[in-house]
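Final report, closing paragraph on structural work. Over the funding period we assembled a curated collection of sequence-structure pairs, and we close with a single example.
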Amino acid sequence: MKILLAPLIVTLALAVLCCGEKDPKDLLGSPSADSIKIKKEVANTFVKRQKRSSLYEWYSEYYKSPMEQMHERCENYPPCDYLSDQIGFSMAYNRFFGRY
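Its predicted structure, as stored:
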């Protein structure tokens, strides 16, 4: 067992010396801020927004149903949102905003 332990310790010590972090004062190996930044045009070439493929998707994006509008109104008001988790949306909405 001692025969295997000595080479293992020597190997680990060499690995630490070889792979250890460089001196923090050595800035030659670190990348500069200019090399990290990319231009806006280059970034937009691979990050594209998905286009709406049909008229229905476009319409539903901009014009929400009355029920969806009520859900958003309740979600944006924290007491109503909390109560809707406890007793349900319809009862919470009726309590805070009246009959729907």
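The longest helix spans residues 2-19. DSSP finds seven helices and no strands in the chain. We thank the funder for supporting this effort.
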